[in-house]
Specification:
Strand order of the largest sheet: 1-2
Helix content: 25-40%
CATH architecture: 2-Layer Sandwich
Shape: elongated
Radius of gyration: 15 Å
Low-confidence stretches: none
Structural class: alpha+beta
Mean pLDDT: 97
CATH topology: Macrophage Migration Inhibitory Factor
Number of strands: 4
Number of helices: 1
CATH superfamily: Macrophage Migration Inhibitory Factor
Distance between the termini: 37 Å
Order of helices and strands: EHEEE
């Protein structure tokens, strides 16, 4: 049973998340030979103020 965790900066639409989980599931079915119903995916959204890079919060960096 594959368990996939995806950490994203918040802001993706529900349509984008649907497409992400669909394509990851299809890839695991094709490559790993598992059944779609055995693929479990967890999406974790993180606000920019909770992530940092180079000693600075992402919320403080220019987009």
């Amino acid at each position: 049973m594959p368990l996939v965790r995806i950490d994203l900066i918040e802001g993706r639409s529900i349509e984008q998340k649907r497409k992400i989980v669909q394509e990851i599931t299809e890839t695991l079915v094709r490559v790993a030979g598992v059944k779609p119903e055995d693929v479990h995916i967890v999406i974790v959204d993180h606000p920019k103020e909770n992530l940092a890079s180079g000693g600075k919060l992402l919320s403080d960096l220019k987009p």
